[in-house]
Amino acid sequence: MSQRMIWSRPAMKVLLVAAVVACVSLHQAVEGRQGRQPADQPEVVFIAANHNLTFLHPGFTPAHIRALLSKIHPAALCLEVLPDWDRRLGIPSFPQEQYAAMTWAERAGVPVYGVNWATPEVQALPPIERMRYVDLVERGPQFEQFREEYRQTVLWTALRAFAESTDDLESLQRGLPAAVESWPSEETGAAIRDDRIAENIRAVVARYPGQRIAAVFGTYHYLPQKRRLAEHRIRVVSAVQYLPLDAERIDAGWHPDDAVVLLGTNLDDWRILGALQSRNHQRTKELLDRMKGERPNSVLLRYYDARWRMLLGDLEAASPALERLAREGTTTAIPYLADARWCWPPFRTYEQRARFYLGVAFDLAGEHETALSHYRALLRLSDDELAVPALIGGRRVDLRPYLESLVKTPFRAGVFEAFRAAVAMGR
User: Fold this and answer.
1) What is the CATH number of the domain that holds 241?
2) pTM assigned to the model
3) How high is the pLDDT of residue 144?
4) In total, how many domains does the chain have?
C-alpha cells in the first residue's frame, strides 16, 4: 500500500508562501539577467566620469571601471568617441575612461560603438595645427595669468590624487541622480550635440532589442540623455543599482597596461611639471613594484624606473638608464593613443621619450650643450612622428616649436615648464 503524506493547513500555508517567494526570487533573478527592465522599455545604464579627474583618485582606476562593467554585463557599449573614429589608430586614452572601457570590451567580447558628435567649431579645426614659434617670456601677462590658473589646478587635482575627496567611482555614481536637479539649463550648442548623441544611442539600442546597453560618458550628459531617450521609451538609469563593487571583482579587472597609464599619470602628466608633489608617490612606488613583477627587464619598466629616479633627484642613476634606452636602436611603441595627461611629451615610442628626458636631465645638471644634441635628434624625426594628439577635437599639434624653444631656453623645471607645455598645446 502506498504511503501518503498528510499536511496540516498551517504547513500547507507555509509551503505556499515559500513557493510564492521562490517564484518572485526566480523572476527577479531572470529579470536581472535579462536587463532589469520591462521588455517594452529598453534600458541604458549610464556610467558617469569626470574627464579631468579619472585615474587620479585611487578609487577610480581602470580596474574599477571594468569591475562595474562586468557587473552590468551589457550587450553593447556606447562611448564618447565619434562613430567614425579610426580603430586602426589604436585605443584612445583620453578621456581616460575610454581606455578602461575599450580594454574591458576587448577582453569580454562586447561590441563598442562611438556615439559622440563633434560641434561645428570642433569639426572646423585643422587636423594638424602648425603653431608659430612663441618666444617665452616668464614675467609676461600670459605667464602670470597661467600661473594663477595652474595653482588652482594643482590644488584641485592633488585633492583627488591623495583621496581627500569623494571622486571615487562609487561616490560619483551615487551622487549623480541627486545632483541633476541642481544643474543649469542646457546651452544651445550643448543641446544640439546631445540631440545627435541621443540619436546615435537610439541606433545602438535598436540593434539589441530587449537587452541592456551601457554608456560610459561625461557626467554632464546624464540628464540631457535621460530626457531625450525617455521620449523614445528608452530608460536611462545610473549605475547605482550595481554598487557596491567587491574587492575580488576589482582585482579581476586589473590589466597589466594599467600600470603604464597610471605611472604615466603620476610621472609624465604635463600638469605636474611644476608640482611633482601633487601626486601620491607612495602609489607610484607600488605601481612600479607591480610592473617589476609583471614586466621584468622590459623597456617600459626601465623607462618608468628612470623617470622615478629623476623624480627623486637621482640624475646620476637616471641619465645612464635613459641613455641606454635612447641608443639601443629598439622601437617600443606607446601601447595606446598617447595623451598629455599621462604621456608628456606624447612622442610615439618610449625610446623617443627617453631621449627627450635625457636632454632634460642634462639641462637640469647645467649641461645645456649636451642636452642640445638630444633635442636636435628629436627635431630630425619625421613630420608624422612630431605631429602628436592634442587636447581638443582629435587635432594633432606639431611638437617642433616646443623642441625649438628648449634649444633656445634650457629646461629648468617649475611652473615655467608647465607653462611652456601649455603654450605648445595651443592653450
Assistant:
1) 3.40.50
2) 0.85
3) 87
4) 2
